Amino acid sequence: MSVPTQNTPSTDTPDAGAADQKNLLDPGFELTLRPMRYPQFYERYRDAIKNTWTVEEVDLHSDVADLAKLSPGEQHLIGRLVAFFATGDSIVANNLVLTLYKHINSPEARLYLSRQLFEEAVHVQFYLTLLDTYLPDPDERAAAFAAVENIPSIREKAEFCFRWMDSVEDIQRLESKADRRRFLLNLICFAACIEGLFFYGAFAYVYWFRSRGLLHGLATGTNWVFRDESMHMEFAFSVVDTVRREEPDLFDEELGGQVTEMLREAVEAELQFARDLCGDGLPGMNTASMREYLECVADQRLVRLGLKPIYGSRNPFAFMELQDVQELTNFFERRPSAYQVAVEGNVSFDDDF
């Protein structure tokens, strides 16, 4: 697992006098913010605060009329999609509390994780509101919330998450290199596969509808979720970068092979979901094009982690290339998707989408 070349910002340099402090994954519970060991995490926390939004700002009223215009195949797709949304962020939030907060030994990073937990709660509220709006029948809503048990394609994604992430849940302290590698696999699955692949796949379906002038409310809320999730993913990757600098011997060929296999499995799990959603194919959206997109995203995650890409696929979705997540304004929406609080500073996103 090679170390990628990076332009390290000046904020990555710990405060003077902190050189004798513990590494990021050393057991313990550091409490003091001064001297500040990891100022880059504190800056991410401050940036996240500027991105505050609320579910009440999302207007879903026009979506109800749009839903009635959809074909049976499109209605099936949107039903499956909101069923996945109903539980996806809950898996992420649970891992934040049970694993990441416990083992990332930096008060600056824990500030960010606390903020991320709030954002995940907002996402859960958004998807709850979405389901209440899209599925007025109580039985349909109950089935959507039970999707992990009742829908095979969603259950397979959940089982993938638990298989790669649960092995570290019973570890109280990362005392050994083996424990730390298990934690890294949890973190990479969380960032690269769940937030960086499963949710990116889901966002593609949303923006496919938006490209046709449909479901403006869903697209508006998704814009804001997209920005949050991209920041969550980059924070997790910055944790991986920090551990790599502090303990490079953890990043051996075995770990690199495991991460590559993890991404392969994630792509296949998400493809099962695509087959369920798309059936024999819909105009502009089918399993073959979704495979290309997922492979393209998986390669970008591998490269970000310092590994070789394995697919070489290109993004087939022009509507994703046009997705400008820096400003998040599109001509289909009746008002700009600007955040409630002005954003300052820079946020890094994938070049192609």
Provide a quick synopsis of the model.
Helices cover 62% and strands 0% of the residues. The chain has twelve helices and no strands.
Mean pLDDT: 86
The figure for the number of domains is: 1
Helix percent reads: 55-70%
* Strand runs, count: 0
Succession of helices and strands = HHHHHHHHHHHH
Radius of gyration: 20 Å
**What is the end-to-end distance?**
25 Å
Question: Strands, helices and their partners?
Answer:
Blueprint (H helix, E strand, L loop, with lengths): L38 H11 L11 H9 L2 H32 L3 H28 L3 H8 L1 H4 L1 H14 L11 H35 L4 H31 L6 H26 L8 H18 L13 H4 L32
Structure commentary:
With 353 residues, the chain is mainly α. Helix content is 62%, strand content 0%. The protein is built from twelve helices and no strands. It is globular, with a radius of gyration of 20 Å. Mean pLDDT is 86; it is low at 2-19 and 324-349.
Name the descriptors.
Ribonucleotide Reductase, subunit A, 12 helices, mainly alpha
